Amino acid sequence: MKSRAxxxxxxxxxxxxxxxxxxxxxxxxxxxxxxPVTDVSFSSDGTKLLFAYNNVINLYKTDxxxxxxxxxxxxxxxDVLDYAGGTIAVxxxxxxxxxxxxxxxxxxxxxxxxxxxxxxxxxxxxxxETSKSYRLLLSRDGKNLINxxxxxxxxxxxxxxxxxxxxxxxKGYEDTSVYGCSLNxxxxxxxxxxxxxxxxxxxxxxxxxxxTIETGDxxxxxxxGKDVAFLxxxxxxxxxxxxxxxxxxxxxIKTIKKEADAGYKIVRSSxxxxxxxxxxxxxxxxxxxxxxxxxxxxxxxGQQSLPCGxxxxxxxxxxxxxxxxxxxxxxxKGDVRIYAL
Length: 341
Description:
four-stranded antiparallel beta sheet; globular
């Protein structure tokens, strides 16, 4: 085990990658994919796992047994997805794009988002998606869909009622793109982070801003590595150049020591908010308790022990396991790995 970690470090040095001192922990289950995996999500009862690569949606039992593969034949690559209450939602950026809603039997039950009759309609119809969605979330009951995106299409935060198709455009980010989104433990609120590192907490039912938190430098408008996760006590894990915890009232609680010689990519919390995980730019991820106490760091290797980037993190509902999706590194053969917590 240690020799593999040393080998990975030497190879990473040759290829110019940063690597961090963490043991390579074997996954409990590994599910292969024929391409970089987009994201990963546990079912509401924790018995199934959903992920996508290219245009293929994959539904597995958590013991590694395949249930079904499905999707739009010859469709575009899926960018983001979520899975809750037996409902599966995916978004693939075309221009314009639609949200596809599926059930667990692989039946495409609904398309959300208007199809434009002409190009001019895109500029006056908020229901037409002309921007890439950076994060897609289903409410806990699977009845509402939240997505965050660039702001060239009526603002960066929207919600859709899946049954009625009703669209809510959340006002407050009219001039900046939105990159991260996270539900709180009971699903009544969600948090977002903008390009200018401004965090907002929203009331999902009312469609209104509850509070606004200035967490950093509004002039640091780069895209990469900005994300937010709601935690169980109402606080927030905020990802920028650093990883920090903030109160819902906007007070900085603590900045967490970096566990890798690399930047950050994404942060995801467990459904009860008692844990959160953060992915590093090049390879691996770390898991923390909600107070910022480190639980473990795991290095993710690809083929030939090369670094393999984490693209998604999901906690099982009972917090016994954490699943990560990967891009496959240099070989572009991703997978999903389930680790014991």
